[in-house]
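A reminder before we start the practical. When you read a complex entry, don't treat the lines as separate problems. The point of joint prediction is that each chain is placed relative to the others, so the output describes one connected object in space. Small molecules and nucleic acid strands, if listed, are placed in the same frame. In the example below there are two entries. Take a minute to note the order of the lines before looking further.
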Amino acid sequence: MASVSGADVKHVVVACEAGMGSSVMVAKMLAKQLKAQGVSVTHSPVNQLADTQHEVVLVHRSLAANAKNAVPNSPVIAFDMFLGDLRIAQLVNEIKEGSVISDD
Amino acid sequence: MTDLIQRAGIRLDATASSPEEAVALCGQVLVELGAVSQEYADAMWEREQKFSSAIGLGFAIPHGTDEARKFVSFDQLVFLRLQDEIAWGDEMVRGVLGIASRGDGHVEILGNFAELVQDENSLELLLSSGTEDQIVNLMLDI
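Here is the predicted structure of the whole assembly.
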């Protein structure tokens, strides 16, 4: 497991496969929600995660294991739904409140 | 410059009995518009089989693979409203947004789309009552 304080999060990467569809959409929504916190939200194919600057990785559950393999020391947060997922809402709160973000 | 979505890329009474048919139709419309070659259309189904593009609320957003971007001539979105909703993995889908993109040119509009489908009035326009023009304007935020 890996964790980070929400207060230290300045870069979130949404991991995806092709970088064209649903993860891009999630990244765009999240960027809007975290704009006021000065957090940048980008997207990256899973196999290029290691080259990205991030404190937290967000990924659909089906790719979570791949993402964790790519960046074992980063907190990798998995979500199930592209729209209205509660874990994503929780991540936004954790960043806003500076609480601990953990992928255990 | 061509708009990211155009009237000719919208099919309001589309018929498809499976995700495979719906994705093929998206690919066909993209090919007809000259936005992609058939290789990209084929890659859309290849990608779909690896990982469902259903996003909830009655929508799916199929697209090709990273490797297939070279078969995209210009960024373009197409939209199908199916006459009858179909099972798409674990979800039911009526609206299908097909994506062709060389880079990140479509990202803004995709973010806009995510907000639209979570808004009751826009959702109604997309899935039931909207005309081609209304949907183009909605998506382009005009």
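Discuss with your neighbour: The helical segments of chain A are 22-33, 64-70, 86-97. What might explain this?
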